[in-house]
Amino acid sequence: MAGRPDAIVVGAGIVGAACARELAHAGLAVTLVDAGFVGGGATSAGMGHVVLMDDSEAQLALTAYSRSLLDELSPALPRGVERDRCGTVWVAEDEVQLEGARAKQSLYAARGLESELLDATALRRLEPELRPGLAGGLCVPGDSVVYPPALARWLADDAVANGATLQEQVTVESVDGSGVTTSGGCLQANIVVNAAGAQAPALTPGLPIVPRRGHLAITDRYPGFCRHQVVELGYLASAHRMDDASVAFNIQPRGTGQLLIGSSRELVGWDPAINRAVLARMLARATGFMPRLAGLSVLRSWIGFRPTTPDKLPLVGQWPELPGLWIAAGHEGLGITTALGTARLLADLMLGRRPSIDPAPYDPARVSAAVG
Amino acid sequence: MSPAPAVTIRVNDAELRVTAGVTLAVALHDAGRTVLRRSASDEPRGPLCGMGICFECRVTIDGVPHRRACVVVVADGMDVRLDA
Fold first, then answer.
1. What ipTM, to 2 d.p.?
2. What pTM was computed for the model?
3. What is the pLDDT of residues A234-244, one digit of tens each?
4. Please, which residues have CB within 8 angstroms of residue A56's CB and are 6 or more apart in sequence?
5. Got the DSSP string for A228-261?
6. Inter-chain CB pairs, A–B, below 8 Å
7. A162, A174, A286, A322: which has the fewest Cβ within 10 Å?
8. Contact yes or no for B12/B60 (Cβ under 8 A)
9. Which helix (DSSP H) or strand (DSSP E) does residue B15 occupy?
10. Which of residues 27-46 of B touch A (CB under 8 A)?
11. Element containing residue A147 per DSSP (H, E)
12. Which is it for the CA torsion A62, A65, A68, A72, positive or negative?
């Protein structure tokens, strides 16, 4: 066992692994602890879509920043991370949604982010399996996909290669001002980072993070069926709703030729059972956009729990209610996209470096009773 | 003894006379074709269980991918693509 660490990162999902790596690179002695194994929670349940999102200025800033950090990292990543710069095609069903695509295009252009507006013909040229009659869309070529558990593992391994200690199958039971109490004993450090995703409130009461369940299905191999991650623009409306179950068409080609099909959103606590009615709605939504999907074989479906905050922005920064405690949690469905930006931002704040993007919108103080 | 009735199928564009009434997996086996596809990591794959359970013998039949050769009976004119 190494000596007393400078920082303990709780949770080795992609966000915690990225934070541990960033802090280790900055020269801190880091211990990364996970109750299970690296990337075994929401990280392994998600699609691995690294995507620009612009629900808010802050969301766009963090996704764009994180995407550029992945571009920088990309040459170092092993093949197993399966990074594919396939781009995103956002699909507009009608003129109203196409207007939304135009607005996105202008916004991205103003930020220096590449995107291309598609009319109906251009859309079907890019993705011929889409049904006729769609209005058009937007192609965002800089988006990519990764295999999230492999990326999380690489981040954790790189942290360890830079002096970090990794403890898997060690459960952190509580956090206090001097460190953590784990299933393996007490561990002291001046800094603790709660990166436990949707489990974060169990260690830090008061964090307004709830699990938002999603289903995914994966097919057998059908190479070439689609070439981009294809998402309906209606996804945004689905992602915003916090009432009942919502579904949206979202499909991703994997390197093996398999297709990942999403998405659904439900607030049902930690219920681990597949909801067949929601799964059926999700798949029907997908075949409505790509009719020939109906003839393909699904091999497996599963669920995961997105860590959701009330304003759909992650909590990144110091927790005002406990000195030494930092939060990096609440990334909803964007943890794979924003892990690298989150980690860099956290390290910048911790070490007094000047962050590349304004950290204020992600400051956990906004949800703290002690401050609010 | 008269020869068993035969049908003609096409395997990767080559005509093949096979015994009528047998499964495609048997017909291919009789013709010496035991590797029917490659795995995701590019390893050879062929019939294993022979009863529709293991999905190792998947081939494309008449344009439909991932059909199990062991549970499909050969038919005259059947078009078979092996990805091997």
1. 0.73
2. 0.92
3. 877 766 666 67
4. A311, A312, A313, A361
5. SEEEETTHHHHHH--SS-EEEEEEEE-TTSEEEE
6. 9
7. A174
8. no
9. strand B14-19
10. 40
11. none
12. negative
